[in-house]
Amino acid sequence: MKKPLTRVLVKVVASGFYREHTGLLLTLFILIFINFFYTSVLNQTHLTQEQIILNALKLVLTSVSEPLGVIVLFGIFLLYSVKSWQYVAGRLTGVDVQFLLYSSTALSPARQRQSWAILQFVLSLPIIGLGVFTLIIGFAFGHWVIPSVIPIYLLTLIAYSAWYYTRLINTPLGEPATAGKLTWLQRWPKPFFSLFLYEIISKKRVPYVLTKVASAISIALVFSVFPDAHTDVRLFGVLSLCSALTHVVLIYQSSEFELFYLRFTRNFPYRQWQLFVQQGALFGFLLLPELLWFLLVGDLRAGLLGAGLLLSTTLVFRAVLYALGQRMDYYLRFVFGLFTFFLLVILFGGTELLVVCDVVAAWMLTYRYHDQASQDG
């Protein structure tokens, strides 16, 4: 903390982050942290002391032993980090911090990344505390793999944050960050639906890789826990939901890209069904590795249902943004609510019905939005 840039960043950015997000942090503490650290057992008369402790720590033990618990825990870490990235990126546009654009860039990139990494460490203290507690409890109860991965995962998020902030502050306003390095893409065909894919190649490669890694981990964990149910349609439905959930950040960014960079396309002579098909083509290419995996691993029925549910659920997650707007907090809550509801439908044997309902719901939301946009235009 002796470095001037680090002190300035912590004072200007970190303090403002905690002031602005006091309500969010209190909500996390009340709804998650309290139950996560210790959940009291109501009736303890019939339990031994060891059983009471085991039940009180059941939530944290689930996060290091059950695939769904691991996905939720790592998802919380990622979503919290995304929230900090959004805040810092918005904060750097403020008039009162414009001096950072000139003073901090005079330092070497390594020095800048070091200071930004310390800032992200300070911003991430709530999830770091959560991770440390999970690590300790996991080791104490004999779980070694996931607790060992948690520090690596958190350090990866901090390292990427430092790199992202350094690149952000060193990129002049209006200058594309990597456009000059991608001349090999100039002659590639660029149909309308593929524009966001090129945005990923140009500027969002790291989020894409992290998303695919998270998707692969979620599929591998769930698939390995149920070795005797590999032909069960419900298993492929759960895998589809988990994979769709890991792509939420990219789905949100695709909406943001369309809203801010493709606004002019509202005047294009596309019909409603054409726009919907283009959305399907975009997410079909974005989810191509997962879709191929479902078709190759499962039998004909399970593979098709898994691939269809993954694509249709992703379309629903994208379509609800038309109604909610670009509000990450509301969007994430709504998506987690849908995830829980869809999971219950699958567990009760409604996988086929869910695929059909997802397609219909996504089509209706997309149709309503574009129809209203054309009338307003």
From TrEMBL:
<protein>
    <submittedName>
        <fullName>Uncharacterized protein</fullName>
    </submittedName>
</protein>
<keyword id="KW-0812">Transmembrane</keyword>
<feature type="transmembrane region" description="Helical">
    <location>
        <begin position="206"/>
        <end position="227"/>
    </location>
</feature>
<feature type="transmembrane region" description="Helical">
    <location>
        <begin position="21"/>
        <end position="39"/>
    </location>
</feature>
<feature type="transmembrane region" description="Helical">
    <location>
        <begin position="116"/>
        <end position="138"/>
    </location>
</feature>
<feature type="transmembrane region" description="Helical">
    <location>
        <begin position="302"/>
        <end position="324"/>
    </location>
</feature>
<feature type="transmembrane region" description="Helical">
    <location>
        <begin position="336"/>
        <end position="365"/>
    </location>
</feature>
<feature type="transmembrane region" description="Helical">
    <location>
        <begin position="144"/>
        <end position="165"/>
    </location>
</feature>
<feature type="transmembrane region" description="Helical">
    <location>
        <begin position="59"/>
        <end position="82"/>
    </location>
</feature>
<keyword id="KW-1133">Transmembrane helix</keyword>
<feature type="transmembrane region" description="Helical">
    <location>
        <begin position="273"/>
        <end position="296"/>
    </location>
</feature>
<feature type="transmembrane region" description="Helical">
    <location>
        <begin position="233"/>
        <end position="252"/>
    </location>
</feature>
<keyword id="KW-0472">Membrane</keyword>
